[in-house]
Amino acid sequence: MTALPCGTPAAELLRLTADGREADPGLANHAAGCPHCTAELAALDADWSGVREAARERPRTPPGLADRALGALSGVRAAPGSYHDIADGVRVADRVVVLIARRAAADALDGLGSVRDVHTGQNKVHIGLAVRWGVAADTLAERVRTAVLAALANQVGPVVSAVDVQVNDVLPPPFG
């Protein structure tokens, strides 16, 4: 931005528009009596009216966001005292099962998606995924299911009988 005929930098008037006249009372007083600054401020105020209106509106929380966030956290914060019996006198904490499943699922996705939710219930592990646009979701979900079952069997034994994988979001394709 350049200076106006009165010598006032146009950027300073933009600052008055964005931050309010109280940001620089001296400049605000000058601008109030200067025809060049008054005209420029009027144009800037008109341009910024939409920004001000948007700033006054409080953004709404998208439906289901809180549930999805809590679901993602609950997978890592399993209920205290929740265990899987794997042998006589040997138990594995639910949190361990969830963490192994989450890691195995993320590794199986290999950058083609992301793990959104992992939780256990009724002798199963439930996994929610987001898959990249253009990726065969059914093939990738089966790869995740197989990898999670194998990881659990290898690391803690037969703690669950099934892994349910649900694709519940699609990620945009990478730019480039």
Write the SSE topology:
Blueprint lengths: L9 H10 L5 H9 L1 H22 L8 H12 L6 E5 L2 E4 H16 L3 E9 L2 E9 L4 H19 L6 E10 L5
Parallel strand pairs: 4-5
Antiparallel strand pairs: 1-2, 3-4
Helix pairs in contact: 1-3, 2-3, 5-6
3D architecture notes:
With 176 residues, the chain is an alpha+beta fold. It has six helices and five strands. Strands 3-4-5 form a three-stranded mixed β-sheet. Strands 1-2 form a two-stranded antiparallel ribbon. Strand 3 (113-121) and strand 4 form a beta hairpin. Helix 1 (10-19) packs parallel to helix 3 (35-56), helix 2 packs across helix 3 (35-56) and helix 5 crosses helix 6 (137-155). The two termini are 32 Å apart.
Rg over CA atoms, rounded to whole Å, is 28 Å
Give me the secondary-structure category: alpha+beta
Strand order of the largest sheet: 3-4-5
CATH class of the largest domain: Alpha Beta
Termini gap: 32 Å
Q: What is the CATH topology of the largest domain? A: GMP Synthetase, Chain A, domain 3
Number of domains: 2
Bulk shape: elongated
CATH architectural name of the largest domain: 2-Layer Sandwich
Strand fraction equals 15-25%
Provide the low-confidence segments as ranges: none
The pLDDT mean sits at 87
- The sequence of SSEs as H and E is HHHHEEHEEHE
Largest beta sheet, briefly? 3 strands, mixed
Protein name: Asp23/Gls24 family envelope stress response protein
